[in-house]
């Protein structure tokens, strides 16, 4: 069989005595034979469908999107396909998968730690890898995204398939094969604008039983299409907004809280004064029809979810740790953390002031530490301690939330500490 399987036109034709080297990082480079540090070309600067640790993805907010990765045309045809993957810098930075010029999938904005809106990314960031963005920008205004495995012996790769699905793979030292970690989009509702504008998409339902529905106050634009399963027309308002018009008492515009929604695409980022909120800004702008939770008061990010600065009615400043729907954790983990923090007596630990488990809201309320690194307190102190609790549960075969020693009125932590001091720690092991 004859033919060209791979070639590049980005190399100067007059180069002599050059060698091609495949580096341990996976970077294929063309260098001088006499001076291997002189590079004429490298694959990391000309990627195809795979994003490896050490690669740099350029982003320039003043320019159009950077479609950095293009997959094969089909499973057996390596020519460029119709999909592409990159970062859109217009507005907030987002990861986008395009099909031609049409968006197929997007993340939510970069929050300085992760790209939000991606299921499981909270858990994998720092556990499997960490993402970095260069700062300050270079003279041309470019910044670069890179990532690196948390465990340097792990092999990681992101790859966009020929059918437009982004997959992440991991291969550990002793493993013979790559393991699929995540894929996006993984559910129907993750597809871009699946149910049209002003609509809700529910993956727990099928299309015949209400997967797509209009939000309150809206109705389908085209009823016939909607009833026949074509939701591309989306929804429209039943009653026009009265913004900028004479207000009637029962016609005042308001906002409805929608949970589990992605932030609007192509939204505007505004700066807030100390005393104003996103709602204040939106109310006085008739072109603003919705707003999302501001990142202004965001203090940090952990496996449980984001942490925000807040204030009680009596003006006491607090830190609110809110469970993220993408964290993979739930009520049991929240209860465990309450137990851990309540038992953790240390001069550097923060005080737990309260918690909330109403409906789908799960939050922990801590005292605010104005001159310290709150995420250091909440994620290093408590997470290290939580690891110890998990080890105790594994060794003893008991859950901290259900164990109680009736003889001494001790919970699992106190009981383990007593056995340690009595030099009887071996008796804690599950027979």
From TrEMBL:
Record-annotated Protein kinase domain positions: 293-431
UniProt-recorded Gene Ontology molecular function terms: ATP binding; protein serine/threonine kinase activity
Domain Bulb-type lectin: 1-43
One of the Pfam families matching this protein, by short name: S_locus_glycop
Gene3D superfamilies according to UniProt: Phosphorylase Kinase, domain 1
UniProt keyword list: Disulfide bond, EGF-like domain, Glycoprotein, Signal
Domain EGF-like: 185-224
Protein name in the entry: Uncharacterized protein
């Amino acid at each position: 069989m004859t033919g060209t399987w791979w070639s590049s036109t980005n190399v100067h034709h007059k180069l002599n005595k050059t060698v091609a080297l495949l580096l341990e990082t996976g970077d294929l480079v063309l260098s001088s034979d006499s001076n291997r540090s002189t590079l004429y070309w490298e694959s990391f600067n000309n990627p195809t469908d795979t994003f490896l640790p050490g690669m740099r993805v350029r982003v320039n907010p003043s320019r159009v999107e950077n479609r950095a990765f293009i997959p094969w045309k089909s499973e057996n045809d390596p020519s460029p396909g119709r999909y592409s993957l990159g970062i859109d810098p217009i507005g907030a930075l987002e990861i986008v998968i395009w099909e031609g010029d049409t968006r197929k999938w997007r993340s939510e904005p970069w929050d300085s730690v992760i790209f939000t809106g991606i299921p499981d990314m909270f858990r994998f960031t720092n556990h499997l890898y960490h993402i970095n963005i260069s700062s300050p920008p270079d003279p041309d205004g470019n910044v670069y995204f890179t990532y690196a495995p948390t465990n340097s012996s792990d092999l990681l790769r992101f790859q966009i398939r020929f059918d437009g699905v982004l997959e992440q793979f991991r291969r550990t030292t002793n493993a013979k094969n790559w393991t699929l970690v995540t894929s996006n989009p993984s559910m129907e509702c993750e597809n871009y604008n699946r149910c049209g504008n002003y609509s809700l998409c529910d993956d727990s339902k099928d299309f015949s039983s209400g997967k797509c529905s209009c939000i309150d106050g809206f109705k389908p634009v085209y009823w016939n299409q909607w009833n026949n399963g074509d939701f591309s027309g989306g929804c429209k308002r039943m009653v026009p907004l009265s913004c900028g018009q004479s207000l009637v008492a029962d016609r005042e515009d308001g906002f409805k809280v929608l949970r589990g929604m992605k932030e609007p695409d192509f939204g505007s980022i505004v700066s807030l004064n100390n005393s104003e909120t996103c709602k204040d800004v939106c109310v006085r702008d008739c072109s603003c029809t919705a707003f999302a939770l501001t990142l202004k008061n965001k203090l940090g990010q952990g496996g449980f979810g984001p942490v925000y600065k807040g204030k009680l009615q009596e003006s006491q400043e607090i830190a609110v740790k809110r469970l993220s729907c993408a964290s993979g954790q739930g009520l049991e983990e929240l209860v465990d953390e309450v137990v851990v923090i309540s038992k953790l007596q240390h001069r550097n630990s923060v005080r737990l002031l309260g918690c909330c488990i109403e409906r789908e809201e799960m939050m922990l309320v801590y005292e605010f530490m104005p001159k310290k690194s709150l995420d250091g307190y909440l994620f290093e102190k408590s997470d290290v301690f939580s690891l110890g609790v998990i080890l105790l549960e594994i060794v003893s075969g008991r859950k901290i939330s259900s164990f109680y020693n009736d003889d001494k009125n001790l919970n699992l932590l106190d009981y383990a500490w007593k056995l340690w001091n009595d030099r009887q720690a071996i008796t804690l092991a599950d027979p």
